[in-house]
């Protein structure tokens, strides 16, 4: 199996060979160097969307653009090392995702422009001062993380009305998961729905099995998975064990694609594509401090009917009608 880094390098090679008709008329100008720092696996499609956004703006890899990639593959202990390695290549701007990934780059440079492609609540996590005037060297796109995870709990209860106890998969090493304010709406929603929520800490693949053994003993009926580089990287393992334990699972979109019951999240591909607009503005002289943060406006609900049938669940028609994608 190729590593996340190797897969991204293959994407670069494909991008150099394939030039869209609209870009063929572009004249070669200054060669811009852009860094992309990916924290977890499974982001190739998002990076492709970013590269597509750049092509639409007239940037052609190998002609007027070089993209340098580094991927941590869900290893938070390597973030600092890989961020430093990327910055040694002297990019003009670096595109990041997640709070840990963005902070790893910012810790090395307070002046290099950073564009967040997807970050949960950039203000609440302290990455920027405000949405209108972020200040510092960070700008980009964000989504309201607390409301998103509360909505996941609502959707899971709607799909499984008999639900009474769920496990919440979090990574305690993720600064965003540590903040009380980020999880407060979820606890409020749980009380209103009459649900008990058990926090399940997962720092790496080695903890996934032990966590499932624990929640099985506590008669948990469902699992809510939060966005996180580590959890993203191990979505397949989480879903596999949830399926074996006959637990209804909801998380980000890859959870449903991997066989979980549902996925609900901001449209990350759209956000990564829009990140290209921020990069373009910065390459043309704009300062990150003056570029307002954009909030996500598109959200995807994916329902896996195949999994529902395997769990003996009947998804309410009202819920199916709201789905952006139904997996048969």
Topology (SSEs and partners):
Layout: H1 4-17, E1 32-38, H2 44-56, E2 65-71, H3 79-87, E3 93-97, H4 99-106, E4 114-120, E5 138-143, H5 145-159, E6 165-170, H6 175-178, H7 180-193, E7 196-201, H8 205-217, E8 222-225, H9 229-233, H10 235-244, E9 248-251, H11 253-257, E10 262-266, H12 268-283, E11 294-295, E12 299-304, H13 305-310, H14 317-322, E13 325-327
Parallel strand pairs: 1-2, 1-3, 3-4, 4-5, 5-11, 6-7, 6-8, 8-9, 9-10, 12-13
Antiparallel strand pairs: 10-12
Helix pairs in contact: 1-2, 2-12, 3-4, 5-7, 8-10
Task: Tell me about this structure.
The protein is an alpha/beta fold and 328 residues long. Helix content is 42%, strand content 21%. It has helices at 4-17, 44-56, 79-87, 99-106, 145-159, 175-178, 180-193, 205-217, 229-233, 235-244, 253-257, 268-283, 305-310, 317-322, and strands spanning 32-38, 65-71, 93-97, 114-120, 138-143, 165-170, 196-201, 222-225, 248-251, 262-266, 294-295, 299-304, 325-327. The strands form two sheets. Strands 7-6-8-9-10-12-13 form a seven-stranded mixed sheet, sandwiched between helices. A six-stranded parallel sheet has the order 2-1-3-4-5-11. It is elongated. The two termini are 28 Å apart.
């Amino acid at each position: 199996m190729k590593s996340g880094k190797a897969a991204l390098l293959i994407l670069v090679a494909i991008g150099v060979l394939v030039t869209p008709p609209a870009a063929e008329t572009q004249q070669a100008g200054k060669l811009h160097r852009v860094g992309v720092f990916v924290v977890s696996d499974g982001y190739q499609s998002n990076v492709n969307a970013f590269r597509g956004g750049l092509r639409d703006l007239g940037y052609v890899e190998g002609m007027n653009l070089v993209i340098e990639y580094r991927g941590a593959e869900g290893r938070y202990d390597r973030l600092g090392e890989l961020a430093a390695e990327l910055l040694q290549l002297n990019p003009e701007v670096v595109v990041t995702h997640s709070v840990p990934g963005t902070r790893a780059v910012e810790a090395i440079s307070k002046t290099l422009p950073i564009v967040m492609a997807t970050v949960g609540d950039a203000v609440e996590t302290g990455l920027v001062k405000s949405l209108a005037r972020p200040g510092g060297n960070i700008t980009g796109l964000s989504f309201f993380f607390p409301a998103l995870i509360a909505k996941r709990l609502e959707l899971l209860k709607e799909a499984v009305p008999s639900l009474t106890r769920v496990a919440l998969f979090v990574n305690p090493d993720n600064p965003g998961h540590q903040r009380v304010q980020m999880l407060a709406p979820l606890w409020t929603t749980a009380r209103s729905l009459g649900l008990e929520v058990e926090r399940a800490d997962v720092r790496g693949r080695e903890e996934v099995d032990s966590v499932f053994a624990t929640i099985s003993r506590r008669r948990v009926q469902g699992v809510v998975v939060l966005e996180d580089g580590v959890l993203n990287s191990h979505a397949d393992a989480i879903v596999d064990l949830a399926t074996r334990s006959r637990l209804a699972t909801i998380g980000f979109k890859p959870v449903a694609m991997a066989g979980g019951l549902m996925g609900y999240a901001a449209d990350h591909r759209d956000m990564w594509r829009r990140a290209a607009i921020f990069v373009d503005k910065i390459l043309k002289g704009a300062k990150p401090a003056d570029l307002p943060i954009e909030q996500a406006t598109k959200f995807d609900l994916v329902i896996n009917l195949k999994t529902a049938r395997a769990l003996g669940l009947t998804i309410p028609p009202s819920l199916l009608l709201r789905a952006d994608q139904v997996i048969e």
